[in-house]
Amino acid sequence: MNSGTISRHRLRFALLLGAFSALGPFTIDMYLPSFPEIAAQFGTEASMVQLSLTASLLGLGVGQLVMGAWSDVMGRRKPLLLAMILYAVASLVCAIAPSIGFFIAVRFIQGFAAAAGIVISRAIVRDVYSGHELTKFFSLLMLVSNVAPLVAPVAGSGVISFTAWNGVFVALGLIGIFLVIMTTWRLEETLPVEKRVSSNIMELLRNFKSLLQDRQFAGYALAQGIMIAGVFAYVSGTPFIYQKIYGASPQLFAVLFGSNGISLIIGSQVVGRLAHVISERRFLLIGLLLSVVTSIAVLLVVLFQGPLFALVIPLFFFVASIGMTATASFSLAMETQDRMAGSAAALLGLIPFLLGAVVSPLVGIAGEQTAVPLGIIILATSLLALLSFLGLARQPRKQAA
Protein backbone atom coordinates (compact mmCIF):
# COMPACT_ATOMS: atom_id res chain seq x y z
CA MET A 1 0.00 0.00 0.00
CA ASN A 2 1.18 3.53 -0.74
CA SER A 3 1.43 6.17 1.99
CA GLY A 4 -1.93 7.71 1.11
CA THR A 5 -3.70 4.36 1.38
CA ILE A 6 -1.95 3.62 4.68
CA SER A 7 -2.97 7.04 6.06
CA ARG A 8 -6.61 6.47 5.09
CA HIS A 9 -6.53 3.01 6.64
CA ARG A 10 -5.07 4.42 9.88
CA LEU A 11 -7.73 7.13 9.97
CA ARG A 12 -10.57 4.62 9.44
CA PHE A 13 -9.09 2.38 12.12
CA ALA A 14 -8.77 5.35 14.50
CA LEU A 15 -12.38 6.38 13.81
CA LEU A 16 -13.58 2.87 14.58
CA LEU A 17 -11.61 2.58 17.83
CA GLY A 18 -12.40 6.19 18.69
CA ALA A 19 -16.12 5.41 18.58
CA PHE A 20 -15.65 2.80 21.31
CA SER A 21 -13.22 4.95 23.30
CA ALA A 22 -15.65 7.90 23.17
CA LEU A 23 -18.36 5.87 24.89
CA GLY A 24 -16.88 6.75 28.29
CA PRO A 25 -16.98 10.54 27.75
CA PHE A 26 -20.50 10.29 26.32
CA THR A 27 -21.63 8.26 29.33
CA ILE A 28 -20.16 10.86 31.68
CA ASP A 29 -20.71 14.15 29.85
CA MET A 30 -23.91 13.88 27.86
CA TYR A 31 -26.21 14.05 30.87
CA LEU A 32 -24.32 16.80 32.72
CA PRO A 33 -26.54 19.69 31.47
CA SER A 34 -29.57 17.84 32.87
CA PHE A 35 -28.20 17.58 36.44
CA PRO A 36 -30.56 20.27 37.82
CA GLU A 37 -33.54 18.69 36.00
CA ILE A 38 -32.72 15.21 37.34
CA ALA A 39 -32.45 16.59 40.89
CA ALA A 40 -35.87 18.22 40.49
CA GLN A 41 -37.41 15.10 38.91
CA PHE A 42 -36.41 12.86 41.81
CA GLY A 43 -36.81 15.56 44.46
CA THR A 44 -33.25 15.13 45.68
CA GLU A 45 -30.11 17.12 46.43
CA ALA A 46 -27.28 17.94 44.03
CA SER A 47 -24.99 15.57 45.94
CA MET A 48 -27.29 12.61 45.13
CA VAL A 49 -27.19 13.43 41.42
CA GLN A 50 -23.40 13.69 41.66
CA LEU A 51 -23.48 10.25 43.29
CA SER A 52 -24.90 8.89 40.02
CA LEU A 53 -21.74 10.20 38.36
CA THR A 54 -19.69 8.50 41.07
CA ALA A 55 -21.52 5.22 40.39
CA SER A 56 -20.78 5.40 36.68
CA LEU A 57 -17.13 6.20 37.40
CA LEU A 58 -16.89 3.18 39.70
CA GLY A 59 -18.48 1.07 36.97
CA LEU A 60 -16.00 2.42 34.43
CA GLY A 61 -13.12 1.61 36.75
CA VAL A 62 -14.18 -1.90 37.78
CA GLY A 63 -15.36 -2.67 34.26
CA GLN A 64 -11.96 -1.85 32.78
CA LEU A 65 -10.27 -4.19 35.26
CA VAL A 66 -12.61 -7.06 34.41
CA MET A 67 -12.93 -6.45 30.68
CA GLY A 68 -9.22 -5.78 30.15
CA ALA A 69 -8.19 -9.02 31.81
CA TRP A 70 -10.99 -10.95 30.08
CA SER A 71 -9.89 -9.64 26.68
CA ASP A 72 -6.36 -10.98 27.33
CA VAL A 73 -7.95 -14.42 27.76
CA MET A 74 -10.81 -14.42 25.22
CA GLY A 75 -9.53 -12.00 22.60
CA ARG A 76 -10.81 -8.48 21.99
CA ARG A 77 -13.93 -8.96 19.88
CA LYS A 78 -16.24 -11.21 21.94
CA PRO A 79 -15.99 -9.30 25.26
CA LEU A 80 -16.54 -6.01 23.41
CA LEU A 81 -19.66 -7.28 21.64
CA LEU A 82 -21.28 -8.56 24.85
CA ALA A 83 -20.44 -5.31 26.66
CA MET A 84 -22.02 -3.16 23.95
CA ILE A 85 -25.25 -5.18 24.19
CA LEU A 86 -25.28 -4.66 27.96
CA TYR A 87 -24.60 -0.94 27.50
CA ALA A 88 -27.55 -0.46 25.17
CA VAL A 89 -29.91 -2.23 27.60
CA ALA A 90 -28.63 -0.37 30.68
CA SER A 91 -28.95 3.02 28.96
CA LEU A 92 -32.59 2.41 28.09
CA VAL A 93 -33.32 1.21 31.64
CA CYS A 94 -31.81 4.46 33.01
CA ALA A 95 -34.41 6.36 30.99
CA ILE A 96 -37.26 4.71 32.91
CA ALA A 97 -35.66 4.66 36.38
CA PRO A 98 -38.40 5.03 39.03
CA SER A 99 -36.16 6.47 41.77
CA ILE A 100 -32.78 8.09 42.29
CA GLY A 101 -31.49 4.96 44.04
CA PHE A 102 -32.45 2.73 41.12
CA PHE A 103 -30.99 5.28 38.69
CA ILE A 104 -27.67 5.30 40.56
CA ALA A 105 -27.51 1.48 40.53
CA VAL A 106 -28.13 1.21 36.79
CA ARG A 107 -25.61 3.97 36.14
CA PHE A 108 -23.00 1.66 37.66
CA ILE A 109 -23.97 -1.08 35.19
CA GLN A 110 -23.91 1.39 32.32
CA GLY A 111 -20.42 2.54 33.30
CA PHE A 112 -19.25 -1.08 33.68
CA ALA A 113 -20.34 -1.86 30.13
CA ALA A 114 -18.91 1.37 28.69
CA ALA A 115 -15.55 0.45 30.21
CA ALA A 116 -15.06 -2.27 27.62
CA GLY A 117 -15.06 0.33 24.85
CA ILE A 118 -12.25 2.26 26.54
CA VAL A 119 -9.97 -0.53 27.71
CA ILE A 120 -10.34 -2.92 24.77
CA SER A 121 -9.85 -0.19 22.15
CA ARG A 122 -6.58 0.76 23.88
CA ALA A 123 -5.46 -2.87 24.11
CA ILE A 124 -6.14 -3.20 20.37
CA VAL A 125 -3.85 -0.22 19.74
CA ARG A 126 -1.04 -1.99 21.63
CA ASP A 127 -1.76 -5.21 19.71
CA VAL A 128 -1.09 -3.41 16.44
CA TYR A 129 1.50 -0.69 17.23
CA SER A 130 4.65 -0.10 19.32
CA GLY A 131 7.31 2.58 19.87
CA HIS A 132 6.77 6.07 18.44
CA GLU A 133 4.11 4.57 16.15
CA LEU A 134 2.17 3.69 19.30
CA THR A 135 2.42 7.30 20.51
CA LYS A 136 1.42 8.70 17.11
CA PHE A 137 -1.56 6.39 16.68
CA PHE A 138 -2.72 6.90 20.25
CA SER A 139 -2.63 10.67 19.72
CA LEU A 140 -4.75 10.13 16.60
CA LEU A 141 -7.14 8.02 18.66
CA MET A 142 -7.23 10.79 21.26
CA LEU A 143 -8.03 13.29 18.50
CA VAL A 144 -11.07 11.23 17.52
CA SER A 145 -12.23 10.33 21.02
CA ASN A 146 -11.66 13.84 22.41
CA VAL A 147 -14.31 15.17 20.07
CA ALA A 148 -16.72 13.42 22.46
CA PRO A 149 -16.31 15.98 25.29
CA LEU A 150 -17.02 18.66 22.68
CA VAL A 151 -20.10 16.96 21.29
CA ALA A 152 -21.57 15.17 24.31
CA PRO A 153 -22.69 18.12 26.49
CA VAL A 154 -23.88 20.06 23.45
CA ALA A 155 -25.85 17.02 22.30
CA GLY A 156 -27.20 16.56 25.82
CA SER A 157 -28.39 20.17 26.08
CA GLY A 158 -29.89 19.84 22.60
CA VAL A 159 -31.83 16.75 23.62
CA ILE A 160 -33.20 18.30 26.83
CA SER A 161 -34.18 21.46 24.94
CA PHE A 162 -37.02 19.54 23.28
CA THR A 163 -37.54 16.59 25.62
CA ALA A 164 -36.97 15.57 29.24
CA TRP A 165 -33.70 14.30 30.71
CA ASN A 166 -34.82 10.73 29.90
CA GLY A 167 -34.22 11.47 26.24
CA VAL A 168 -30.47 11.66 26.88
CA PHE A 169 -30.43 8.01 27.95
CA VAL A 170 -32.58 6.93 25.03
CA ALA A 171 -29.96 8.56 22.79
CA LEU A 172 -27.17 6.71 24.65
CA GLY A 173 -29.08 3.47 24.14
CA LEU A 174 -29.17 4.11 20.40
CA ILE A 175 -25.42 4.77 20.44
CA GLY A 176 -24.99 1.41 22.16
CA ILE A 177 -27.02 -0.34 19.46
CA PHE A 178 -24.90 1.33 16.78
CA LEU A 179 -21.72 0.04 18.44
CA VAL A 180 -23.15 -3.48 18.60
CA ILE A 181 -23.53 -3.30 14.82
CA MET A 182 -20.01 -1.89 14.37
CA THR A 183 -18.48 -4.65 16.53
CA THR A 184 -20.34 -7.32 14.59
CA TRP A 185 -19.55 -6.11 11.08
CA ARG A 186 -16.41 -3.96 11.22
CA LEU A 187 -14.10 -5.11 14.00
CA GLU A 188 -11.54 -7.83 13.36
CA GLU A 189 -9.81 -9.83 16.09
CA THR A 190 -6.32 -8.44 16.81
CA LEU A 191 -5.12 -10.84 19.53
CA PRO A 192 -4.09 -14.21 18.09
CA VAL A 193 -4.86 -17.31 20.15
CA GLU A 194 -1.16 -18.02 20.72
CA LYS A 195 -0.73 -14.61 22.41
CA ARG A 196 -3.63 -15.00 24.81
CA VAL A 197 -3.04 -15.66 28.50
CA SER A 198 -4.40 -18.43 30.68
CA SER A 199 -7.87 -18.05 32.16
CA ASN A 200 -6.48 -19.18 35.52
CA ILE A 201 -7.60 -16.52 37.99
CA MET A 202 -4.38 -16.77 40.01
CA GLU A 203 -2.28 -16.12 36.91
CA LEU A 204 -4.42 -13.09 36.08
CA LEU A 205 -3.92 -11.77 39.60
CA ARG A 206 -0.16 -12.37 39.30
CA ASN A 207 -0.19 -10.33 36.09
CA PHE A 208 -1.76 -7.38 37.92
CA LYS A 209 0.70 -7.82 40.81
CA SER A 210 3.71 -7.78 38.48
CA LEU A 211 2.44 -4.63 36.78
CA LEU A 212 1.96 -2.84 40.09
CA GLN A 213 5.43 -3.89 41.27
CA ASP A 214 6.98 -2.31 38.17
CA ARG A 215 8.01 1.14 39.48
CA GLN A 216 8.08 2.71 36.02
CA PHE A 217 4.62 1.44 35.12
CA ALA A 218 3.22 2.35 38.55
CA GLY A 219 4.66 5.86 38.31
CA TYR A 220 3.13 6.51 34.91
CA ALA A 221 -0.19 4.93 35.91
CA LEU A 222 -0.47 6.94 39.13
CA ALA A 223 0.54 10.20 37.48
CA GLN A 224 -2.13 9.72 34.82
CA GLY A 225 -4.75 8.41 37.24
CA ILE A 226 -4.42 11.19 39.79
CA MET A 227 -4.50 13.86 37.08
CA ILE A 228 -7.65 12.43 35.54
CA ALA A 229 -9.25 12.26 39.00
CA GLY A 230 -8.83 16.03 39.09
CA VAL A 231 -10.61 16.25 35.76
CA PHE A 232 -13.52 14.25 37.15
CA ALA A 233 -13.78 16.79 39.97
CA TYR A 234 -14.01 19.46 37.27
CA VAL A 235 -16.64 17.42 35.41
CA SER A 236 -18.71 16.92 38.55
CA GLY A 237 -18.46 20.49 39.81
CA THR A 238 -18.80 22.71 36.75
CA PRO A 239 -22.49 21.96 35.97
CA PHE A 240 -23.45 23.56 39.29
CA ILE A 241 -20.64 26.15 39.39
CA TYR A 242 -21.37 27.51 35.91
CA GLN A 243 -25.17 27.32 36.16
CA LYS A 244 -25.85 27.99 39.86
CA ILE A 245 -23.03 30.35 40.83
CA TYR A 246 -22.50 32.17 37.52
CA GLY A 247 -26.05 31.83 36.18
CA ALA A 248 -25.08 30.22 32.86
CA SER A 249 -27.85 28.60 30.82
CA PRO A 250 -27.63 24.86 29.97
CA GLN A 251 -26.69 25.87 26.42
CA LEU A 252 -23.90 28.22 27.56
CA PHE A 253 -22.66 25.57 29.97
CA ALA A 254 -22.54 23.07 27.11
CA VAL A 255 -20.48 25.49 24.99
CA LEU A 256 -18.07 26.32 27.82
CA PHE A 257 -17.68 22.70 28.86
CA GLY A 258 -17.44 21.45 25.30
CA SER A 259 -14.79 24.01 24.39
CA ASN A 260 -12.41 22.18 26.68
CA GLY A 261 -12.59 19.27 24.25
CA ILE A 262 -10.53 21.56 22.01
CA SER A 263 -7.90 21.92 24.72
CA LEU A 264 -7.76 18.12 25.16
CA ILE A 265 -7.21 17.77 21.42
CA ILE A 266 -4.49 20.42 21.41
CA GLY A 267 -2.65 18.78 24.28
CA SER A 268 -2.75 15.27 22.82
CA GLN A 269 -1.88 16.35 19.29
CA VAL A 270 1.17 18.35 20.38
CA VAL A 271 2.54 15.15 21.93
CA GLY A 272 1.70 13.02 18.89
CA ARG A 273 3.12 15.45 16.35
CA LEU A 274 6.36 16.17 18.23
CA ALA A 275 7.06 12.73 19.76
CA HIS A 276 10.05 12.27 17.44
CA VAL A 277 11.54 15.59 18.62
CA ILE A 278 10.66 15.74 22.32
CA SER A 279 10.57 12.57 24.41
CA GLU A 280 7.35 11.31 25.94
CA ARG A 281 8.90 11.61 29.42
CA ARG A 282 9.63 15.30 28.89
CA PHE A 283 6.12 15.91 27.56
CA LEU A 284 4.71 14.20 30.64
CA LEU A 285 6.73 16.46 32.93
CA ILE A 286 5.71 19.58 30.98
CA GLY A 287 2.05 18.58 31.22
CA LEU A 288 2.27 17.96 34.97
CA LEU A 289 3.95 21.34 35.59
CA LEU A 290 1.32 23.09 33.44
CA SER A 291 -1.45 21.49 35.52
CA VAL A 292 0.10 22.77 38.76
CA VAL A 293 0.38 26.35 37.47
CA THR A 294 -3.14 26.48 36.02
CA SER A 295 -4.76 24.86 39.09
CA ILE A 296 -3.13 27.53 41.29
CA ALA A 297 -4.72 30.14 39.01
CA VAL A 298 -8.13 28.45 39.33
CA LEU A 299 -7.89 28.41 43.13
CA LEU A 300 -7.01 32.13 43.23
CA VAL A 301 -9.98 32.98 40.98
CA VAL A 302 -12.50 31.10 43.10
CA LEU A 303 -11.05 32.38 46.38
CA PHE A 304 -11.42 35.98 45.21
CA GLN A 305 -14.73 35.27 43.38
CA GLY A 306 -13.43 36.37 40.01
CA PRO A 307 -15.64 36.65 36.90
CA LEU A 308 -16.60 33.66 34.77
CA PHE A 309 -14.05 34.30 31.99
CA ALA A 310 -11.24 34.39 34.60
CA LEU A 311 -12.24 30.88 35.68
CA VAL A 312 -12.78 29.47 32.18
CA ILE A 313 -9.33 30.45 30.85
CA PRO A 314 -7.13 28.59 33.37
CA LEU A 315 -9.50 25.61 33.28
CA PHE A 316 -9.01 25.49 29.50
CA PHE A 317 -5.24 25.14 29.95
CA PHE A 318 -5.67 22.75 32.87
CA VAL A 319 -7.63 20.40 30.63
CA ALA A 320 -5.00 20.84 27.88
CA SER A 321 -2.42 19.52 30.32
CA ILE A 322 -4.55 16.37 30.67
CA GLY A 323 -4.33 15.80 26.91
CA MET A 324 -0.55 15.97 27.16
CA THR A 325 -0.15 13.78 30.24
CA ALA A 326 -2.70 11.15 29.17
CA THR A 327 -1.09 10.62 25.76
CA ALA A 328 2.50 10.58 27.02
CA SER A 329 1.85 8.42 30.09
CA PHE A 330 -0.19 5.85 28.12
CA SER A 331 2.57 5.39 25.57
CA LEU A 332 5.27 5.16 28.25
CA ALA A 333 3.32 2.70 30.38
CA MET A 334 2.20 0.44 27.52
CA GLU A 335 5.48 0.34 25.58
CA THR A 336 6.91 -2.61 27.51
CA GLN A 337 3.62 -4.54 27.62
CA ASP A 338 2.77 -7.19 25.05
CA ARG A 339 1.05 -10.29 26.37
CA MET A 340 -0.55 -8.28 29.20
CA ALA A 341 -1.71 -5.31 27.12
CA GLY A 342 -5.34 -5.76 28.20
CA SER A 343 -4.43 -6.00 31.89
CA ALA A 344 -2.07 -3.02 31.61
CA ALA A 345 -4.73 -0.93 29.86
CA ALA A 346 -7.21 -2.04 32.53
CA LEU A 347 -5.02 -0.74 35.36
CA LEU A 348 -4.39 2.49 33.47
CA GLY A 349 -8.15 2.88 33.24
CA LEU A 350 -9.07 1.58 36.70
CA ILE A 351 -6.92 3.96 38.74
CA PRO A 352 -8.33 7.25 37.39
CA PHE A 353 -11.94 6.11 37.61
CA LEU A 354 -11.60 4.80 41.18
CA LEU A 355 -9.88 8.00 42.27
CA GLY A 356 -12.39 10.06 40.32
CA ALA A 357 -15.26 8.26 42.05
CA VAL A 358 -13.78 9.27 45.43
CA VAL A 359 -13.00 12.86 44.43
CA SER A 360 -16.15 13.79 42.47
CA PRO A 361 -18.60 14.06 45.42
CA LEU A 362 -16.11 16.19 47.37
CA VAL A 363 -16.63 19.11 44.98
CA GLY A 364 -20.14 19.66 46.37
CA ILE A 365 -19.21 19.09 50.02
CA ALA A 366 -19.47 22.81 50.86
CA GLY A 367 -22.74 23.33 48.98
CA GLU A 368 -23.72 24.60 45.55
CA GLN A 369 -22.75 28.23 46.11
CA THR A 370 -18.97 27.91 46.34
CA ALA A 371 -16.31 26.71 43.91
CA VAL A 372 -13.45 26.68 46.41
CA PRO A 373 -13.46 22.86 46.84
CA LEU A 374 -12.91 22.50 43.09
CA GLY A 375 -9.84 24.74 43.19
CA ILE A 376 -8.39 22.88 46.17
CA ILE A 377 -9.01 19.44 44.67
CA ILE A 378 -7.47 20.07 41.25
CA LEU A 379 -4.40 21.69 42.84
CA ALA A 380 -3.99 18.75 45.22
CA THR A 381 -4.33 16.20 42.42
CA SER A 382 -1.86 18.10 40.21
CA LEU A 383 0.76 18.14 42.97
CA LEU A 384 0.23 14.47 43.85
CA ALA A 385 0.51 13.45 40.20
CA LEU A 386 3.78 15.34 39.84
CA LEU A 387 5.17 13.74 43.02
CA SER A 388 4.13 10.27 41.81
CA PHE A 389 5.98 10.75 38.54
CA LEU A 390 9.12 12.15 40.17
CA GLY A 391 9.11 9.57 42.96
CA LEU A 392 8.35 6.37 41.02
CA ALA A 393 8.97 6.79 37.30
CA ARG A 394 12.62 7.71 37.56
CA GLN A 395 14.70 7.63 34.41
CA PRO A 396 16.39 4.23 34.24
CA ARG A 397 20.16 4.40 34.72
CA LYS A 398 22.21 3.95 31.58
CA GLN A 399 24.34 0.84 31.49
CA ALA A 400 28.06 1.40 31.60
CA ALA A 401 29.80 0.82 28.31
TrEMBL record:
This is Bcr/CflA family efflux transporter. Residues 1-397 form the Major facilitator superfamily (MFS) profile domain. The keyword Transmembrane helix applies. Coiled coil: none annotated. Its main location: membrane. Keywords: Cell membrane, Membrane, Transmembrane, Transmembrane helix, Transport. It is found in: Cell membrane. Belongs to the major facilitator superfamily. Bcr/CmlA family. PROSITE patterns: MFS, SUGAR_TRANSPORT_1. It is a multi-pass membrane protein. The chain crosses the membrane at residues 12-28, 48-68, 80-102, 108-125, 137-162, 168-187, 217-242, 248-271, 283-304, 310-333, 345-366, 372-393. It holds the Pfam family MFS_1.
